[in-house]
Amino acid sequence: MSIVGSPLEGRSFDAVIFDLDGTLIDSHAAMIRAYSRWGEEFGVDLSVLPGLLGMPSRVTAERLLDEDRVDAGVARIEELEVIDTDGVIALPGALESLQQLGHRAAIATSCTTPLMEARVGAAGLPFPGVVVTRDQVNEGKPHPESFLLAAERLGVDPSRTLVVEDAPAGVAGARAAGASVLGILSTKSADDLEADAHVAHLGDVTWEITEEGVRLH
To answer: In the chain, N or C: fewer CB atoms in 10 Å?
Structure first.
């Protein structure tokens, strides 16, 4: 699917809210290294990890560890991910999108604040004025809280925002917030995401700033 002929064609938005991993940056290799080491340390079967990558670390720990080990597991995976950013790079079009959109851009991520700062810094991307991390909300994706808080901080109606996501949970959360969704096909197929439109990466998108807001082509 492309933008042409989709619900996004010809629409204007007041702001654009980006997911981080798989949307603005490629952190997959670093994530695999961290979770592989974590799995070995905590005796977790590594074969179950691929289906949990990208979820908040607490969700992963709660699913894989006994209750009395969850807090320690969360602290350890956070530590491993923050210290290992080797190979974390910006995806095509990410830098240009953030620069062009300026104050109209935000990030809503399942990363905690220290992890977000480590990865955005490693990728050489600018920090938008509005960033919502997992430790700033009560409920993570697919709950809409992250997107609703980002819209509130941007000073815009959530229904006037465009969310850019690469994961089904993020798409579901964006829809629950009333936002439109552009899917990035870095980790999932268009059938998996079911966004309003899909592109391979942000390098396939051109942003236009008009009096009515932001349009994408």
So the answer is: C
Beta strand spans in the chain (E): 15-18, 25-26, 89-90, 105-108, 130-132, 161-165, 180-184, 197-199, 207-210, 213-216
**Residue 145 neighbours by CB distance under 10 Å:** 18
Letter for the amino acid at 139? E
Q: Residues in the chain, how many? A: 217
Spatial contact of 118 and 112, defined as CB atoms under 8 Å apart: no
pLDDT band at 51 (very low <50, low <70, confident <90, very high): low
pTM of the complete model: 0.92
Q: Decide: 78 and 111 in contact? Cβ < 8 Å.
A: no
Catalytic residue set: 19, 21
Predicted confidence (pLDDT) per residue in 152-167, tens digit: 999 999 999 999 999 9
Please give the Cα distance from 211 to 192 (Å, whole number). 34
Asked if 207 and 164 count as a contact pair (C-beta separation under 8 A), the reply is: no
Per-residue HEC secondary structure of 154-198 comes to HCCCHHHEEEEECCHHHHHHHHHCCCEEEEECCCCCHHHHCCCEE
